[in-house]
């Protein structure tokens, strides 16, 4: 069964259905947007599977961005205790991040991605040509995750991005192929070492504790996930610098790259910083009551930290 959303369905659905002509294909088209990433929407997918009497030999094909992929993966993990999933990501963010790694789930009013499961896809099919249909804003949102991979453990990639960001912004094919494949390889290495996030995979959360709080506090969908991550990367750099871990010059390099990628570096002015802090205190990465953040020593060197002053954290968030 193909799971997609309204926008992607208009662009690609007939071609994909035609390519799968030898199979018994059913399609469910969902509404667009992060605000529909809910248990109610996943139930729509499960209803369709049951209505058509799909058995455990079926495969879900997630055609779309990260929201479609996350919900399809969660439905695949739940249906008859697990069926196959193929990811066909059509946005830059989903191609470099959410389609790879097996994290699936939905949002709750009290937090982002708080309900979910690990369910690895049977395959991921990436077609760079789909990126030509993205708006400038959606495209930039995906670059935030690319920058994240460079900051985590690939300083050479960060330097390459700094020298080639204009080519990526221009959607040059060779530059895109390189940054997508490099990002996927970087993520795959962490997942192979720690599939269930018991250790080093948590480094992939760089910028995300801040970012998820921004998304939740502003109302899901108002700030794109990649935009929130970009702000989160800057806040992680700011806190790291304030703690004497990251040099001011490296912090400036991070801010500069984020800005050149067309991404925000500050939270929306109307956001409640108190609400941000509250969402962070309920983040799913809390361990035994202690908030863990991914911080930086330099671009390409990150670490998991639970030893920081709450007053300093609040100061950084308030100034965001």
If you had to describe this structure to a student in words, what would you say it looks like?
Strand 3 (59-64), helix 3 (66-78) and strand 4 form a beta-alpha-beta unit. The strands form 3 sheets. This protein has a 5-stranded parallel beta sheet with strand order 2-1-3-4-7, sandwiched between helices. A two-stranded antiparallel ribbon has the order 5-6. The protein is built from 12 helices and 9 strands. The termini are far apart. The protein has 320 residues and is an alpha/beta fold.
Mean pLDDT: 94
Structural class: alpha/beta
Instruction: Summarize the main sheet.
Output: 5 strands, parallel
Percentage of residues in helical conformation: 40-55%
Overall shape: globular
Task: Supply the number of helical segments.
Answer: 12
Radius of gyration: 19 Å
Q: Order of strands across the biggest sheet? A: 2-1-3-4-7
Q: Enumerate the spans where pLDDT stays under 50 for 5 or more consecutive residues.
A: none
* Total count of strands: 9
Q: How large a portion of the residues is in β-strands, by DSSP E? A: 5-15%
What are the defining features of this structure?
320 residues; five-stranded parallel β-sheet; two-stranded antiparallel sheet; 50% helix; globular
What topology does this entry show?
Blueprint: E1 2-5, H1 6-19, E2 27-30, H2 39-51, E3 59-64, H3 66-78, E4 84-89, H4 92-98, E5 103-108, E6 111-118, E7 123-124, H5 136-153, H6 155-169, H7 173-193, H8 208-218, H9 225-242, H10 248-260, H11 273-281, E8 293-298, E9 301-305, H12 310-318
Parallel strand pairs: 1-2, 1-3, 3-4, 4-7
Antiparallel strand pairs: 5-6, 8-9
């Amino acid at each position: 069964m193909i799971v997609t959303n309204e926008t992607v369905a208009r662009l690609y659905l007939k071609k994909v259905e035609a390519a799968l002509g030898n199979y018994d294909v059913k399609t469910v088209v969902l509404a667009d947007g992060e605000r529909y990433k809910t248990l109610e929407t996943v139930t729509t997918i499960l209803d369709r599977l049951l209505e058509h009497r799909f058995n455990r030999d079926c495969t879900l094909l997630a055609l779309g961005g990260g929201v479609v992929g996350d919900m399809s993966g969660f439905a695949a993990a739940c249906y008859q205790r697990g069926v196959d999933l193929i990811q066909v990501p059509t946005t830059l963010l989903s191609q470099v991040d959410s389609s790879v790694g097996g994290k699936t789930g939905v949002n709750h009013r009290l937090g982002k991605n708080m309900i979910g499961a690990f369910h690895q896809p049977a395959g991921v099919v990436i077609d760079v040509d789909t990126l030509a249909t993205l708006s400038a804003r959606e495209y930039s949102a995906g670059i935030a995750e690319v920058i994240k991979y460079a900051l985590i453990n690939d300083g050479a990639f960060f330097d390459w991005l700094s020298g080639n960001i204009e080519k990526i912004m221009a959607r040059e094919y060779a530059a895109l192929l390189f940054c997508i494949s490099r990002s996927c390889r970087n993520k795959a290495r962490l997942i192979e070492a720690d599939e269930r996030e018991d250790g080093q995979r948590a480094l992939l959360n760089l910028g995300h504790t801040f970012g998820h709080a921004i998304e939740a506090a502003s109302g899901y969908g108002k700030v794109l996930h990649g935009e929130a991550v970009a702000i989160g990367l800057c806040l992680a750099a700011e806190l790291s610098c304030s703690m004497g871990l990251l040099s001011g010059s490296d912090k400036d390099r991070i801010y500069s790259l984020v800005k050149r990628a067309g991404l925000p570096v500050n939270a929306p002015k109307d956001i409640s910083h108190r609400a941000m802090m509250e969402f962070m205190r309920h983040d799913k990465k809390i361990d035994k009551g202690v908030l863990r953040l991914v911080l930086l020593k330099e671009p390409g060197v990150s670490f998991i930290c639970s030893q920081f002053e709450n007053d300093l954290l609040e100061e950084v968030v308030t100034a965001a």
